[in-house]
From TrEMBL:
Record localization: Cell membrane
Gene3D superfamilies: Multidrug efflux transporter AcrB transmembrane domain
Membrane-related topology note: Multi-pass membrane protein
Record carries keyword Nucleotide-binding: no
Main localization (coarse): membrane
UniProt-recorded name of the protein: MMPL family transporter
Transmembrane segments: 6-29, 260-276, 282-304, 352-375, 381-402, 433-450, 647-667, 674-692, 698-718, 730-755, 761-780
Annotated organism of origin: Dyella acidiphila
Residue stretches making up the Membrane transport protein MMPL domain: 193-401
Record keyword Cell membrane present: yes
Keywords noted in UniProt: Cell membrane, Membrane, Transmembrane, Transmembrane helix
Length: 785
């Protein structure tokens, strides 16, 4: 291969990388929206066998995804109301909000009653239905109780329209009647202890996960809240919504990227300068790594259409592994001295780089088998980045490194040689067996203390302040938990409502037993036709003799005109689902009906409210046809647990796949020695995890898979390179240590990530790579002796 061909190959590679960079820049910045996905739900796998359940979970999760909920608190009722009005008016003027609701338009509470008057004889509350079903129902007594009831301040029927209170009692079971928030001076207000809370809601003019929307909305909220709190002393504004969680996740990821990227870049730069004693190798190493990261980002966005926060932070850490390939070529150049020749250098490192790349790709490919979108994208990112970074060494670096370089610094070689000799001595003879037994005895207590935790909530760590505010808002306003719900399916709407009613009987038993706070479902607001017919039949005997009904009402003091109107209203008409869905009272609850999502049949959602266990909620649905409890967090946690339990098998499979490759290269007898450093590194890392009481998750096992791949790389680098540096003992191990330290600087820094999943990943790699790098000299001892 001539020098001209080296330049030609480098030129073609450079052109391809420029085109790829332009494409990546357009994908990231040229389409008017950022492809960085801050929706944490998007990173999670599908867990439900029923596709409709998965659709329902996504629909419910995003039903209020673009809505911001603010609760204005003040011990002074007037100040709380004034602050809420000012907040609503200020936010309403900002175009970033599509709508803001603080002060309600004046309306008559009768508007909530009127749609039901024509259907009043088909709607009965639970207590009335039970009483009417008993023999000897005393209509006169029920009438007297209704007449003497105290004045209703909330949603109430007029006495002449509902003299027995049947419709009133049914309305009192409706969600708007049970809400702690009541209209006061056209503001939805709740009172708790000595504090008044006023609700303000806003809908964004875009997605909560759009970074531009996030920034503008947060700026507007922060500025307005500060102004309101100053104008109304003692005011506190609680906030919740997907906007705040998405922004917090993005901010945490940006901090991680900056910290990991800056510290690892600076550390790697100082190391390369110290070891190679020239800025040229430093620039080329970073160029090779940057090419890999750019290619990985572009390919990931092309394949997935977006890039997850986990991948963004992981990409910053990839620097430490992608730089290994260029380090080995640069080390070969430094060790060759004046005899350096680029093509000969390529031939020298080719086998080591390809073997190392193969083991790394194997580890990441196994990572990509997990049905977890974020892990698959991380695997794709890493495999692309590794492959292109390695390719850059073959295509680009030879043309840029035609002249010899300074040898590796004497200090780095001396330190490496000292460590190598110590490990080699300890790994030889009887002392190696003694040390192995001692290490085993030290590791066993750590292994014994290992446990696991598959809770999906360990994947992310939202700010405590946001969680506390959300919990406080839920407790004050009575909002339910949207992560668990029942999917009720049937052949048609009538069957769905009947099945809901069967479920609600069991849920009511849980409420009566203080196991559940309540529930939200359509059947309570829109009874099935079967239930309505049964209600109607219970009232029919009372209207069978109109004259007797007239006597009861006259005795209670009702006017003849009102009596005539009430009797003539019988039998009324049943309430129909479609007309109810189109009515004003149904507006906040339409998302519970999945009519537009079901092609064959019908379906609805029922939301349990409170902190009931998943097991008790599952029991409530047991044996009910068409009723399924969908618990997304529990489902994902179970999936994590299932794949975590498989992980040790995957790790063993990866080791077995590497064995024939190493046997082909080094001979079967040497395979145990070559594989010993990464395998022992994994074993000792597990012991450390046990000692520090860190529960094992899927991410720990995925990191251990990479420890195997990276550790095997170091063994390959050392065995392949040592025959070429016999004139300078320790030089090859110095380059291996340099690779290990750069990996620790990058991946190890993830141990301080704000994301628990990456924190587990980084902590495991920190120890695994550290142990493996120190044990690698033992892999060549047999050959050296």
């Amino acid at each position: 291969m001539t020098q001209r061909s080296l330049w030609l190959r480098a030129g073609w590679f450079a052109v391809a990388m420029v085109l790829l960079t332009v494409l990546g820049a357009w994908l990231l910045f040229g389409r008017g929206r950022s492809p960085i996905q801050t929706d944490l739900l998007a990173m999670l796998p599908a867990t439900e066998r029923n596709p409709l359940a998965e659709v329902a979970a996504q629909r419910l999760a995003h039903a209020n995804g673009d809505r911001v909920i603010l609760l204005v608190a003040n011990k002074d009722d007037d100040r709380a109301q004034a602050a809420a009005r000012a907040l609503g008016q200020a936010l309403g003027k900002d175009p970033i909000f599509a709508s803001v609701t603080a002060e309600l338009p004046p309306f008559d509470l009768q508007q909530l009653v009127t749609p039901y008057l024509a259907h009043r004889f088909s709607l009965l509350g639970d207590a009335d239905r039970t009483a009417l079903a008993q023999p000897g129902y005393d209509a006169a007594k029920a009438l007297a109780q209704r007449v003497n009831e105290p004045f209703v301040t909330g949603v109430g029927t007029r006495l002449q329209d509902d003299p027995f209170g049947w419709l009133q009692h049914w309305l009192e079971q409706q969600p708007w009647s049970r809400s702690p928030l009541l209209p006061e001076d056209n503001l939805l207000t709740a009172h708790r202890d000595d504090t008044s809370y006023v609700l303000v809601t806003a809908t964004l003019a875009g997605s909560s996960y759009d970074d531009v929307i996030q920034q503008r909305a947060l700026h507007a909220l922060d500025q307005t809240e500060h102004t309101v709190e100053q104008a109304q002393p003692g005011t506190q504004i609680l906030r919740t919504g997907a906007l705040f969680y998405a922004a917090a996740a993005r901010a945490g990821a940006e901090r991680d990227v900056h910290r990991v990227g800056f510290i690892s870049t600076l550390g790697i730069a100082l190391l390369l300068l110290g070891v190679f004693r020239s800025p040229g190798p430093l620039l080329l190493a970073f160029l090779s790594t940057a090419i890999g990261v750019i290619a990985a980002t572009t390919v990931s966005v092309l394949i997935f259409g977006q890039i997850y926060l986990l991948t963004v932070v992981f990409g910053a850490a990839l620097l430490g592994e992608a730089v290994d390939y260029s380090i080995q070529y640069l080390a070969a150049r430094a060790n060759a001295g004046s005899a350096w020749e680029p093509r000969q250098g390529l031939r020298q490192v080719r086998a080591a780089l390809l073997l190392a790349l193969g083991t790394s790709l194997l580890g990441y490919a196994l990572l990509g088998l997990v049905p977890f979108p974020a892990l698959r994208q991380m695997a794709c990112f890493a495999m692309t980045g590794m492959a292109v970074a390695c390719l850059s060494v073959f295509a680009l670096l030879p043309a840029c490194l035609l002249r010899p370089a300074k040898p590796l610094s004497n200090a780095s070689v001396r330190i490496a040689l000292a460590i190598q000799q110590v490990v080699a001595r300890l790994a030889s003879g009887r002392r190696s067996m003694v040390l192995a037994v001692m290490a085993l005895l030290l590791a066993v207590p750590g292994w014994w203390q290992l446990r696991h935790d598959d809770d999906v909530h360990l994947l992310i760590a939202p700010p405590t302040a946001l969680l506390q505010q959300e919990a406080q808002i839920r407790e004050i306003t009575g909002l339910g938990n949207g992560t668990q719900f029942y999917l009720v399916q049937g052949a048609d709407a009538e069957q769905v409502l009947q099945r809901e009613e069967a479920l609600e009987l069991r849920l009511q038993q849980m409420v009566d037993g203080d196991q559940l706070q309540g529930w939200l479902g359509l059947a309570g607001m829109m009874p099935s036709q079967q239930r309505q017919r049964a209600n109607h039949a219970l009232l029919a005997p009372l209207f069978a003799q109109p004259q007797r009904m007239r006597q009861w009402l006259q005795a209670a003091g009702f006017r003849d005109a009102d009596i005539d109107a009430f009797i003539q209203a019988w039998p009324g008409t049943p309430l129909q689902l479609q007309s109810w869905l189109n009515s004003a009272p149904a507006t906040p609850f339409r998302y519970l009906w999945l009519g537009d999502e079901v092609h064959d049949g019908a379906a609805s959602l029922v939301l349990p409210q409170g902190d009931a266990s998943s097991a008790s909620l599952q029991q409530a649905a047991a044996g009910l046809p068409g009723v399924t409890l969908v618990d997304k967090p529990a489902g994902i946690s179970a999936l994590f647990g299932r794949y975590r339990s498989y992980a040790s098998g995957w790790l063993l499979a990866a080791i077995l796949l590497i064995v024939p490759v190493f046997a082909w290269r080094y001979g079967l007898r040497d395979v145990p020695r070559v594989l010993a450093p990464p395998v022992l590194g994994i074993a000792f890392t597990l012991a450390v995890l046990g000692y520090v009481h860190q529960p094992l998750t899927l991410f720990h096992w995925m990191a251990l898979m990479l420890v195997l791949g990276v550790g095997a790389n170091y063994a390959v680098f050392l065995r392949e390179g040592e025959p070429h540096v016999t004139h300078r003992p320790g030089a090859m191990y110095a380059s291996v240590l340099l690779s290990a330290i750069t990996a620790v600087l990058s991946f190890g820094l993830l141990a301080w990530s704000s994301m628990p999943a990456l924190r587990d990943f980084g902590f495991t790699l920190l120890w695994g790579i550290g142990f493996t790098a120190l044990l690698v000299p033992a892999s060549t001892h047999a050959r050296n002796t």
